[in-house]
Amino acid sequence: FQGYLDHEQFNQLEELQDDANPNFVEEVVTLYYRDSARLVHSIEQALEKSPIDFNKLDSYMHQFRGSSSSIGAKKVKAECSLFREYCRAGNGEGCMRTFQQVKKEYTALRKKLETFFQLARQAGPVDRARRPK
Amino acid sequence: MNPSNGKGSVSTSSRVSWKSNEAAPVADQFPVGLRVMVVDDDPTCLMILEKMLRTCKYEVKRCSRAEEALSILRGNSNGYDIVISDVHMPDMDGFKLLEHVGLEMDLPVIMMSADDSKSVVMKGVTHGACDYLIKPVRIEALKNIWQHVVRKRKNEWKEVDQQSGSADDGQQPKYSEDGDYSSSVNEGNWRNSKRRKDDDEDGEDRDDTSTLKKPRVVWSVELHQQFVGAVNQLGIDKAVPKKILELMNVPGLTRENVASHLQKYRLYLRRLSGVSPHQNNLGNSFMNPQDPGYGPLSTLNGIDLQTLAATGQLPAQSLATLQAAGLGRAVVAAKSRIPIPVVDQRNLFSFENPKLSFGDTQQPPQHLNNGGTQINMLHGIPTNMQPKQLVNLQHQGNSLPTVQNVQSVQSGSLLMQMTDQPPLRGQQPMGNYNSISQSSPMMNLSSSYPLSNIQAKSGFPEDLTSEMKGSTPGFMPSYDIFNELNHQQKSHDWELQNVGLTFNATQQANNSIDVLGTSIAASHHSGFSSSSQGSGLTRNASTVHANNNNNAISVGQHRMNVNNFYPDNNSVRVKLEPPLFPEQFGQDDLMSALLRQQQGQGGIGPAENDFDFDGYSIDNIPV
Predict the structure, then answer these.
(1) Minimal CA–CA distance to B497: which of B422, B563, B427?
(2) Sign of CA dihedral A17, A21, A23, A27
(3) Are the C-beta atoms of residues B187 and B247 closer than 8 Å to each other?
(4) pLDDT in tens, B21-69
(5) Which of A5, A6, A16, A57 to mutate to test the interface with B (most CBs of B within 10 A)?
(6) Where is composition skewed (Low complexity) in this entry (chain B) (predicted)?
(7) How many CB atoms lie within 10 A of CB A1?
(8) Closest approach of chain B CAs to the CA of A126, in angstroms?
(9) B263-292 core/surface letters (b: 16 or more CB in 10 A; e: else)
(10) A24-48 vs B43-55: helix axis angle to the nearest 10?
(11) Is the pLDDT of residue B309 over 60?
(12) Nearest CA to B443 among B394, B505, B381?
C-alpha cells in the first residue's frame, strides 16, 4: 500500500469508523469507486471528442482529484494534477498520455484497496466479519 | 423579549433571550449541536465531511447541489448556524452561494476546495467567506468551525451594543476581524481600528459564548437610507466606513457596523450588476398586488406586510423599509434602486434578535420569521413590524434607502402596524392601522427589534426609545421596509406610513409626504389612514391629517388609499400619510434625504435628524 495511499488521510477515515458506522471506510471507498468510475468515463469521452474541451476536462479532473485526495489516494492525485497541467496548456496529447497514467494508478489503487478490505474482513473483529459481502 | 435590550442592555438580556429564541438548544452545550449545512457535489467528500461533522457532535445537513441548499436555508432561515460549501460545483458557483447566504441569511460561510491557489482563496475572502479549507479536509479543521459562529454573533452583538458610546472605531473586539475580514478588504484602517479596540471592547462582548447573543444592529429602513445616502454622497469607491459613519451621524453606530453593512451592500451591488436582481420576487409573493392604485408599491406593502404580519417575523422595521420603499417610489418614482443590501438586513433581524433589519429585500419570508421573533418582543407591538420585514425582503431591489430613512423611523412604527398582528397596543385590529397610531406600533417596531439598541446607538433619540418603549422604535424597521420597498417600488406605500408616524408631531411632512404620498399611497394604510388624508396615515390620528393635508392629500391619494389597497389591514398598515413625512421631524430629514436621494438629489443630508424623534410626540401616533 505504500505510496498509494496517504496514510494520514486514510487514517482519518479509519478513525471516523465507529460502532455506529462500522463499515464507514469501506462505504466511503465504494462511493469513491462509483463516483470516480463515472468521472473516468466522462473524461475518456471528452478526450475522444474533437476538438477537446479542455475546460470540461479540467473540471472533471478537478473533481476526480478532489475525491481521490479525500480518501488519500496519493498517486492518483498526483497524476491528476499533472493531467490538469496539460489541460491548462491545451496539450491534448499530454492529456491523453497522462490520463493513461491516471487510469493505471487508479486501477492499481482499487486492487490494493480490495485486498485491504479482504484482509480487514478476515482479520478484523467479529463485527467486521458480519459485514455483508 | 425585552425591548429594553435595544437600549443597550442588550447584552445580558439579549443574550439570554437569544438562547431561548434560538430554535436550537445548542447554546447550552455549544458547540455541540451546532447546525451545519454542508454543500459539495462530490459524494465521497460529502460523505466524509458529514461523518466528520457528526463526530464533532454537530448536526449536519448535506446537499449536493447549491440550489437545494439555498432553498433549504431559505425555508428555514433560523435553522442553521453555519454553512460549508465547496468552491467548484456544477450548478452554481460556490462563491455565488456564498454571497447569497451572506446577504440573505447572514450566516457564516466556510469555503473549501482542493484548489489552494492564492487567487481562489482571495476570492473567498473578498466574497465574505469567514474561512477557507483546503481539501482533503481534516477533522481537526472542522472541530473549530464553531468559532466563526461565535465571532459573527459577537460582532453583531457588539454592534447593537454600541450605544454605550464605544467609539465606532475598532469597537469590535478581535473577533470581528475574522468575520469582517472580507469586508475590510477595502478598508484597511477600519480593520486596524478594530484591532485597537480589541482590548477596550472586550469587556462588552463578554457574553458567554454559549449564548452567542447577537444583538445585531438592525438596519432599519431609515438607517439604511442614511447609509446609502452617505455612500452615494461619497461615491461608491470612496465610501469608507469611517466617512459613511460620519455622514450618517448616527450615535451609537459603530464603524464596524457600517463596515459590515457596507460589505454586504457591496456584495449586493455586485450581485445586482451581475445578476438581474430578482426584484424581490419574494416580495411579490408577499405582496399582493393590492395596490392597484399605486402599482408596485402597494403590492409591496400589502404583501409584505401581510406576510410579515403573518410571519410576525419582520420587525417593524421591515415595514418601515417597505414604507420607505413605498415612499421611495413616490420620490424616486423609479425605484431608486439603491441597491440596498436588503438581504442582509433581513438577515440581521431574522436572526435571533430582533435586529433592525433594514430592507432586506431579498429575504425570503423566512427571515421574517426571525424577525418575527424579535418583534414579538415588542409585545404589544403588533407584528407590525413584521410586515415591514417582509417589505424589506421584497424590496431588496428597491433602493429606497433614502426614502426609507426618513420615513422609516417614523414609518417604522407605522409599518409596524402593517403587520396583521394586533397592533401594538393590541387594540387595533390589523385591519386598520389605527393601531399604528398606537404610536407604539411605530415604536413597536423598534421594540421588537434591537432597534432599541440601535436606536440608542444610532442616536435615535433616546427619547424615542423611551417613548417607544412600549413600542420600540419602530422606525428602524421602517427602514428596512423601505429598502425593500425600494426594490419594489412599492415601498412607497410604506414610506408614507412611516411618515405618518413621524408626523404626528409635525405636519411638516407635507412636503415630503407628497413624495411619499405617491409611493405610499399604495401602502395599505390600514390602521392609520385615519382618514384624514385618506392616506391612512393615521398617525396620531389626526395630527397627521392635519399636517399632511397638504401633502397628504396629494399623497394620500396615492397611497393612502391604501386602505383600499390593502386587502387586509394586516398587510399594510403602512399607510403613510403623505404629509407626514419628514422634514419636520427628524425623520423628515431622513425622508427628505431619502426622497432626495431618490430623486437623485444626492445624499441624505439631514440624516442626522432622523433619529430625532423628539420632535414627535409618540403619543401622537395615531392609534
Answers:
(1) B563
(2) negative
(3) no
(4) 444 444 567 778 889 999 998 888 899 999 999 888 899 999 988 999 9
(5) A16
(6) 162-172, 524-536
(7) 11
(8) 23
(9) bbbbbbbebbeeeebbbbbbbbbbbbbbbe
(10) 160
(11) no
(12) B381
- Cβ-in-10-Å burial (0-12, 13-18, 19+) of A93 comes to exposed
| Best A5, A16, A27, A70 residue to mutate vs chain B (most B CBs within 10 Å) | A70
Total residue length of chain B: 623
Tell me the C-alpha to C-alpha distance, in Å, between residue B604 and each of A25, B235, B397, B600: 61, 13, 19, 10
Residues of chain B with Cβ-Cβ distance to A113 below 8 Å are none
**CB neighbour list of residue A51: distance below 8 Å, 6 or more residues apart:** none
d(CA B362, CA B514) in angstroms, rounded, equals: 27
3-state secondary structure of B112: strand
- Determine the residue type at B79: G
DSSP state of B117: -
Is residue B284 helix, strand or coil?
Answer: helix
Q: Is residue B337's pLDDT more than 60? A: no
> What are the pLDDT digits (tens) for B219-238?
777 778 888 888 888 887 87
Residue with cell 471506510: A25
- The separation between CA B245 and the C-alpha centre of its own chain, rounded to angstroms, equals 17
Confidence (pLDDT) at A12: 84
Whether the pLDDT of residue B503 is over 50: the answer is no
B169 secondary structure, DSSP code: T
A9–B136 CB contact, under 8 Å? yes
Which residues make Cβ contacts (< 8 Å) with residue B464, sequence separation at least 6?
B409, B443, B446, B455, B473, B475, B611, B612, B613, B614, B618
Residues of chain B with pLDDT > 70: what percent?
30
Q: Count CB neighbours of B203 within 10 A.
A: 10
Sign of CA dihedral B286, B288, B291, B294: positive
At B321, phi and psi to the nearest 5? Answer: -65, -40
Q: Measure in Å the smallest separation between the Cα of B113 and chain A Cα atoms.
A: 8
Residue B339, pLDDT above cutoff 90: no
The verdict on A12 touching B (C-beta cutoff 8 Å) is yes
Task: Tell me the per-residue pLDDT of B445-479, one tens digit each, with 9 for 90 and over.
Answer: 333 333 333 333 333 344 433 343 434 333 343 44
Q: What is the DSSP letter of B618?
A: G
CB atoms within 10 A of CB B617: 16
Q: How far apart are CA B266 and CA B540, in angstroms?
A: 38
Which one, of B514, B598, B527, B594, lies nearest residue B559 by Cα? B514
Residue A72 in contact with partner chain B when CB distance is under 8 A: yes
The C-alpha cell at B328 is 421611495
Write the DSSP assignment of B19-81 as a string of letters: HHHSSSTHHHHTTTT-EEEEE-S-HHHHHHHHHHHHHTT-EEEEESSHHHHHHHHHHTTTS-S
For residues B239-264, average pLDDT: 83
Q: Is the pLDDT of residue B111 over 90?
A: yes
pLDDT of residue B218: 67
Chain A interface includes B115 (CB < 8 A): yes
Q: Do A63 and B88 touch (CB under 8 A)?
A: yes
Whether B44 has its CB under 8 Å from any CB of chain A: the answer is: yes
Q: What angle do CA B266, B267, B273 make, to 5 degrees?
A: 90
Q: Which three cell numbers stand for residue B155?
A: 460582532
Closest CB from A15, A21, A71 relative to B44: A71
DSSP B615: G
pLDDT at B186: 44
